[in-house]
Amino acid sequence: MFIFDWFYGILASLGLWQKEAKILFLGLDNAGKTTLLHMLKDERLVQHQPTQHPTSEELSIGKIKFKAFDLGGHQIARRVWKDYYAKSSSGLHISFESLDRLLEFLVTVKFLESASIIPDNSSCGYLIHEGQRIRMGSSLIAPLFLEKTYSSFLGLFGVWSGVYYTEKVDAVVYLVDAYDKERFAESKRELDALLSDEALANVPFLILGNKIDIPYAASEDELRYHLGLTNFTTGKGKVNLGDSNVRPLEVFMCSIVRKMGYGDGFKWVSQYIK
Ligand SMILES: Nc1nc2c(ncn2[C@@H]2O[C@H](COP(=O)(O)OP(=O)(O)OP(=O)(O)O)[C@@H](O)[C@H]2O)c(=O)[nH]1
Ligand SMILES: [Mg+2]
Question: Model's pTM, two decimal places?
Answer without folding.
Answer: 0.70
